[in-house]
Amino acid sequence: MIAFLALPSSRRHGLTLALLAALCGLVALSAPPAAAAAQSSERFSYILFGQGSRDTTMSGSTDDLRHARTLRRGAEALLYVRQGGATYVIRDAGTLRRAQEIFAPQQAMGARQAELGSRQAALGGRQAALGADQARLATRQAGASPARAAELARQQDALGRQQDALGRQQDALGRRQSALGREQSRLAREADASFRALLA
User: Fold this and answer.
1) Angstrom distances, CA of residue 99 to CA of 80, 90, 102, 138
2) Which segments of the chain have a pLDDT < 70?
3) Beta-strand pair 56-59/78-83
4) Residues 141, 156: contact at Cβ < 8 Å?
5) What are phi and psi of 88, to 5 degrees?
6) Given 62, 82, 151, 192, which residue has the most CB atoms within 10 angstroms?
7) Helix residue spans in 50-145 (DSSP H)
C-alpha cells in the first residue's frame, strides 16, 4: 500500500515519490501468481455450521464459505476444513459436538460484546440528541436579548453536564469493551489450539 502525504516539498521530493510508487507497482506486478495461490492453499481455514442454524463459526475466505455451503445437506451440522491444499468435510456427531464446545466460550463472549455494543450505540444516540439540543440553543442564543441569552446559557450548561455524564458512561463502557476484546483474543488462541488438536 502506498501512502501519499501532503507535505510541502521540492519537485525532486515529488519525483522521488513518483519513482517509488512506480517501483512498488512493478514489484507487485512481477509477483508470481503461483506464489499467491500456494499461500492460499497452505492457509488453514474452517467453517463450522450448527445443526438447524445458518450461524457459522469460521476462519477463512468467502470462497471457503460458499464452497462449504454447497457441501451442506439442508440445515445439517457440518465442519468444513481446508488445510495444506486438501479439503475435508466432517459430519461425525462426536467431532461436531466437541468443536461446538471448543467455540462456545468465544460465542458467549461475542454475545456479551454485542450487548455492550448495543448499550454504547444507545448512549451514542442520546449524546447525539443532546448535541442537537445544544446546537438549537446556540442558534437561539445568537439573536436573544441579554436576559434571554443568560437563561439559554444556563440551559446550555445543564445540557453540557448531561453530555459530560454520558461521556463518562461511554468511557466506562469503552474500557469494558476493551477488556472483553482482550479476553476474546485469549479465548480465540485457546480455541484455535484445542481445535487444531481435535482435527489432528
Assistant:
1) 11, 11, 5, 58
2) 1-42
3) unpaired
4) yes
5) -125, 140
6) 82
7) 62-71, 93-142
| All cell numbers assigned to 173 | 463502557
Q: What's the pLDDT at 42?
A: 58
Nearest alpha carbon to residue 152 among 164, 160, 140: 140
pTM for this model (two decimals): 0.63
CA distances from 185 to 17, 117, 190 (A): 38, 17, 9
Residue type, 1: M
Q: Which amino acid is at 198?
A: L
Q: Which residue has the cell 457440518?
A: 78
Furthest-apart CA atoms within the chain: distance in Å: 79
Cβ contacts of 21-29, under 8 Å, gap ≥ 24: none
Q: Look-up: residue for cell 467431532?
A: 95
